[in-house]
Write a structure and sequence with these properties.
Radius of gyration: 22 Å
Largest sheet: 2 strands, parallel
Strand order of the largest sheet: 1-2
Order of helices and strands: EHHHHHHHHHHHHHHHHE
Number of strands: 2
Structural class: mainly alpha
């Protein structure tokens, strides 16, 4: 049994004492603001190309996103694995392992981003063709994707920084990084598209420059604020035991995200079959409904770190309190966000004045928004399970939700009742997910998953 002396020299935000509601709100609020900035960041891309380049450009940017997400999905999972591991080590007071975890995930990120970028560049056009991208939107979608893949390391770097900081209980610092990226992206979007007339290429170039800037600033900031993170970034070192733990925690989520993005591409193929107007409306509506999803994501990320720290500190009573609090907050926000539906035509008009595009977007909003509270419940439950160190069950639930729920339902509904109702398939998928994760959560089996990860470390005050 390994014995570690608790290191109190590192400034961090502990979640093992104090009001559960206050802690979750305090931790989630900066992430929510960050998510709003991130969405603003993405919306500006779509608004600028939709209004100054045309609806084909809006369709092209929307079509490319699921493919980009698919290529990045594995790193998203590994980043979450690092976040969970860091939060549990902090809860246990093992700061030496915290530093090893941060250095290991950074090495894996930098070395892994190169092949992903290369593969993404070469596969852009074949995948776009595979998902039935309309011929009129294909050239612009290809240009957009290739440029974004070229600068993918900036996006990976920002997300790794944010993941490490979330493990520390610090959600505010990454908000600063994102604010920098958002301001740079908005300015460059306007300059490259309106002034230089670079079209979708300008939007893509603005994106990768902004992401790289936020990543580099994040490195400087983290090294200044946290002494334990002042390791040489480019001295590629990793701990094999730590890497194995990160993979164990993150690989299921990475596989889940990859299969999820492939499923979204399958759904995108169905959307693409209805033409560029429908694609553009779907893309715009996706940007709008994300404002309801952002609080769900923020509260879920908060409860993941909250769960990790409190399990590390053997405070299971607080884990239950955190679960109830996060679900309640998420559902209340979802109910409030129903106002998006009556405001839909006005919001969609920001992206394109085209009537057909607005009508297509309203089909999505009317189908999805009334049931999004169901997603809030299932997302929070899975966040708690992951925070405890169990990634397999959430992965299975997500895969079943998408491949046995949403996708078959979308094709069936579109065929039998028309495209006007096809997005009701989202609620079908969320219900499938809840039927898998809900009973597992209630069983309590996830509570013992962190013990092996912490290696029975004893903390000496």
């Amino acid at each position: 049994m390994e014995i570690k002396k608790k290191d109190n020299s590192v400034s961090m935000n502990t979640m093992t004492e104090g009001s559960t509601l206050k802690i979750i709100l305090t931790f989630a609020f900066p992430m929510l603001i960050g998510n709003i900035l991130q969405q603003l960041y993405n919306m500006v891309d779509s608004i600028v190309v939709g209004n100054y380049v045309g609806k084909l450009a809006l369709a092209a940017v929307g079509t490319g996103f699921p493919i980009i997400f698919m290529m990045a999905a594995m790193f998203i999972g590994l980043g979450l694995g690092a976040t969970i591991l860091i939060s549990q080590y902090i809860g246990a007071g093992d700061m030496n392992s915290v530093q090893k975890t941060a250095q290991t995930i950074y090495t894996a990120m930098i070395l892994g981003s190169i092949p992903i970028s290369i593969i993404g560049i070469f596969l852009s056009e074949p995948i776009l063709i595979l998902i039935n991208t309309p011929v009129d939107a294909l050239p612009m979608a290809k240009i957009y994707m290739m440029i974004v893949f070229l600068g993918m390391i900036g996006s990976f770097g920002y997300n790794v920084n944010a993941g490490i900081l979330q493990g520390f209980g610090d959600s505010k610092s990454s908000l600063l990084f994102l604010a920098i990226a958002t301001v740079i992206n908005i300015i460059l979007d306007l300059v490259f598209v309106i002034v230089f007339h670079w079209g979708v290429a300008g939007v893509a170039i603005a994106t990768i420059i902004a992401q790289a800037a936020s990543w580099i600033f994040g490195i400087v900031y983290m090294r200044k604020k946290y002494e334990i993170l002042r390791f040489p970034i480019l001295r590629f070192r990793f701990d094999r035991v730590i890497l194995k733990k990160i993979i164990k925690l993150g690989l299921p989520t990475g596989i889940q995200q990859t299969l999820f993005s492939i499923g979204i591409m399958s759904l995108q193929s169905l959307v693409n079959s209805y033409g560029s107007d429908f694609i553009a409306g779907f893309n715009a509506a996706n940007k709008i409904d994300t404002f309801a999803f952002m609080p769900i994501q923020s509260f879920s990320n908060a409860v993941t770190t909250f769960t990790g720290q409190n399990i590390g500190a053997k405070r299971m009573d607080r884990v239950h309190q955190g679960t109830v609090t996060a679900i309640s907050l998420s559902v209340v926000v979802c109910i409030a966000c129903l106002v998006i539906v009556p405001l839909g035509p006005y919001l969609l008009g920001l992206f394109s004045p085209d009537v057909a595009v607005i009508e297509a977007g309203m089909i999505y909003l009317k189908n999805v928004m009334p049931t999004i509270a169901l997603l809030a419940v299932v997302f929070t439950i899975n966040a708690v399970i992951r925070g405890a160190g169990e990634s397999i069950v959430p992965m299975i639930g997500a895969i079943v939700s998408l491949w046995l729920g949403r996708i078959p339902a979308a094709y069936f509904i579109a065929d039998k009742f028309g495209k006007e109702y096809m997005f009701l398939s989202y609620a079908v998928g969320w219900a499938f997910w809840l039927l898998i994760s809900g009973p597992y959560y209630l069983s309590g089996k996830w509570k013992s998953k962190s013990e092996k990860l912490l290696n029975n470390t004893i903390v000496i005050e």
